[in-house]
Amino acid sequence: MGVRAHSLVLALLLLTLGSGTARAASPDRSGLQKKLDAVVASGVPGALALVRADGKTVRLGSGDARISPRRPIRPNDRFRVGSVTKTFLSTVVLQLVAEKRLSLADPVEKLLPGLVPNGRHITVHELLDMTSGLFDYFDDPRVVKPWLAGNFGYYWSPERLVGIGVSHKPHYAPGTGWSYCNTCYIILGLVVEKVTGHTVGNELARRIFEPLHLDATSFDTQQQIAGTHAHGYYRLGAGLVDTTLISPSAGWAAGAIVSTADDLSAFFRALYGGRLLRPDLLRAMMTPPPTADPNELYGFGLAKVQLPCGTMFGNHGDIVGFGTDTWGSADGKRFFVLFVNVDEESLTAKSQAMMNEFRLAAFCGH
User: Fold this and answer.
1) Does the N-terminal or the C-terminal CB of the chain have fewer CB atoms within 10 Å?
2) Burial of 105: CB neighbours in 10 Å, binned 0-12, 13-18, 19+
C-alpha cells in the first residue's frame, strides 16, 4: 500500500516523450471512455473515473464492481482509497501546526515518549515528508501473514504496527535520505490523537468530512464497507480473490479511508483552493525534500509528477484489492480520479500501460 511513484512517473514520461505541451480545454468524454474501457479489457474487473477541466466534469464507469453475482460499476460507488488517506491526515496535522498545538520541529519523543527508538531525533516534519529513515512496516511479511492464512478480520493496533516498523534497523539517519514510510503516518495518527484527545476518525470528520459535506467519505475501522461500493480483488494464479473484507486496521491512519470520486474531487478542490490550509503550509505539502529520489517527489502527503504538459500533484493509493489515483494541477483547474478494483501487485503489464494512457489523457488532454 502506498505511493511507489517511480513506476508511474517513468511510464508517464516515456509516454509523453515528443508529445508536446498542448492540453485540451475540456474533458473528451468519448476518448476517455474508450481509454477506461481499454483498462478493463486489459484484465481489470472494473474501473471508474472523474475528470474535471475547464469548469466541466465527466464521470465514467466501465466493467464490474462485483464479479459474482455480477454488478456493473457506477461512478458514484464507494471504494477504499489506500494511501490517499495520507493527504487527508497531513492536512489535519498541518491544521494543528497552524493552531500552534503542534510544531513541525517537535520530536516524536516529546509527543509519544518511549514509542520510537531515537525518537528525540525524529521530527514531525520528517514523518510528514518520509525522511525519518524508519522502516516501512508493510515490508515486513508478518503484516500479511494473517491474510494469507485466510484471517481477513485480523486486527492490528497502531502501536503494534509501529513496533514492527521500529523492530528493523532504520534505513538512514533522520533527515539524510528518503524512503516510503507507512510507519511514519501511523505515528502521525497517534500524534493527532495525543494532541487533540480525540480519535483520528473524529478529527478527520470534524475538520474535513463534515465541513466539506463529504457524506460518502469515512475513516473505516470495520471490515464491511457501508453503502453501495466496489469490491476489491487480488490476483492469485489465474483467478481473482475477493479481498473486500480484509480489515482496514493494517492501514489505519496511513490508508483506511473509504470515499467516492466526487468526494475526493471536492476535497482536493478545497485543499488546492486554500480552504483547508494557509498558503505557506499548502506550499510545504507540495514541496519535496532535497533528499527525495527524483522519481519519487513526495512532500507532506502529496506527490509531485512533472509532465511535458505541466506539473501534477496528488497521491496514489494502493491497498489489497483497490487502487486509486488522485492527481491535479496546483490551481485545481484540472483534476482526475482513477479507480480500479485490483491492487498494484495484481495488475498486468498491459493494465499498467492502459492506466498510464488514461492518466496522461485525463491530465494532459491527449
Assistant:
1) C
2) exposed
